[in-house]
Design goal:
Chain lengths: 161, 93
């Protein structure tokens, strides 16, 4: 929980803060060098120098981390936007295909009705000229059966008893 | 000692290898494409009239045409969805 809080707070700090911190660290380092030459401030420079180095290192390190984080956040937003657009396009494609299939099915069925009507028109004449041999139905029905049977594993073929 | 310094370096670099946590959902398929093609109709074995046989043949042609339309729709669906997917993820060789 504490770690999560820590990272949450770190994440909220802008990258420029760390850059400023690093710059301040460098400035402090040079200031400490100048102040060290003045006798009244010599004692302070002894503490300021290591502190400025620590500030600079932490500032640079965190600036790098924050920059990477910003980069990833930008990438995430970019991808999320692209995905949202893609999902919209995908839904639009589905609508177009669905409408097209509906229209095509209707055209096919209407066409079928036209031909069924034509058969009715000539039925008496055609039936009077020809009588079907029972083998015709047998051949036609045999050819109409879908020849590909679904693959059934050998274990399932056993008698369930 | 020098090798020990590599450990924090590796930890720092591992952050750069993190994947962007964004996933793209598999596109939905129109419901009408998820039904299989019907079995073909059969002529009654005792049928003697040619017109009745013709009716069955015409019905079966219609079923074939419906099935063909569905297959063409599947091909178009796949091509369109792939194009959309590639526009987001990028083409992979």
């Amino acid at each position: 929980m504490m770690m999560w809080m820590f990272f949450w707070i770190i994440g909220k700090i802008p990258a420029t803060f760390w850059l400023v911190m690093a710059v301040v660290g460098i400035a402090l380092f040079f200031a400490a060098g100048i102040l060290g030459r003045l006798p009244p401030f010599k004692a302070y420079s002894f503490f300021i120098k290591p502190l400025s180095v620590v500030l600079t290192v932490i500032g640079i390190y965190m600036y790098g981390g924050a920059s990477i984080n910003d980069h990833y956040q930008k990438l995430i937003k970019e991808y999320e936007q692209k995905i949202a657009i893609a999902e919209e396009k995908s839904a639009a494609v589905n609508t177009v295909i669905e409408e097209r299939i509906k229209y095509q099915t209707q055209v096919i069925r209407d066409n079928q009705i036209v031909y069924q009507d034509k058969i009715i028109e000539v039925a008496t004449e055609v039936d009077g000229q020809c009588k079907l041999d029972p083998r015709v139905a047998e051949i036609l029905n045999g050819a109409s059966v879908y020849p590909i049977t679904l693959f059934v594993p050998a274990a399932d073929k056993k008698d369930p008893k | 000692m020098k090798k020990l310094l590599l450990i924090p370096l590796l930890i720092v670099l591992s952050g750069c290898a993190t994947k962007v946590p964004v996933a793209m959902k598999f596109p939905a398929v129109p419901e009408s494409l998820l039904t299989t093609c019907k079995d073909l109709e059969q002529v009654k074995p005792s049928e003697e009239q040619l017109s009745e046989m013709l009716k069955v043949v015409v019905t079966n042609y219609g079923q074939h045409h419906e099935c063909r339309a569905k297959v063409e729709a599947w091909i178009d669906w796949y091509k369109s969805q792939k194009e959309i997917h590639d526009s987001v993820i990028g083409k992979r060789k």
